[in-house]
Amino acid sequence: KQWYQRRVAITAxxxxxxxxxxxxxxxxxxxxxxxxxxxxxxxxxxxNATALPNMTPPxxxxxxxxxxxxxxxxxxxxxxxxxxxxxxxxxxxxxxxxSTDNIMDDIERAIDDGVNSVKVLxxxxxxxxxxxxxxxxxxxxxxxxxxxxxxxEQYAIKKFAEAFEVFPKILAENxxxxxxxxxxxxxxAHQDKVSGMNAGINLESDHCEVMDVxxxxxxxxxxxxxxxxxxxxxxxCTVLVVDQIIMAKQAGGPKPRKGQADPDDE
Length: 266
Fold this sequence. Notes:
Helix content: 40-55%
Number of helices: 10
Shape: elongated
Radius of gyration: 31 Å
């Protein structure tokens, strides 16, 4: 009766007993069963409710609020819809429609990338020139620094600089352009210290051309570049350390004691 007086819809995270369903039907209480804990937490966050481990009457602070709970048909699937009338909501649901699963997967990835980009920009609003402009500029400056460095370290610095060429090269090859020609044109454009730093690949052109990405408003997120380079460098350093340990360890089994013949020689 306390559930009925509060006009509460019960959301269960496990099996619902027959006695529970009997009294729920008697008092007109809606029961929604969610088998996923992730969905249960997501629903509690969207309606500002608290998940209770036991079936006890909740307090006013634990009860969430939802404007409407109803059954709706989306395509051929019947779903339970929780709707909020207010403009600002803690969570939203996007319904994707498509003719094939591949199209819906591509749309889902595009939406996921867009939402994550906005989420990252709320933490750090700094951006970098996109379309491979940042990678080529880093490669050029690292190559210059490597040439000025004496000793054997310059070869490691130059190889590290060449690793940045992979990004614009793959980007050009995926577009159908010749990667080596694109790299040559971008290096020539980046020789200009004033406006050449913003020279990137023109993916809309059928030829291997470069463009001013700042003028075209093509940017990459700073945090994505920062953490991507940092993780890649850490992974490469870990592999090199492991190789050094393996090479430093002496191969083969224990040496035979002095004065005793080796059994393998018999």
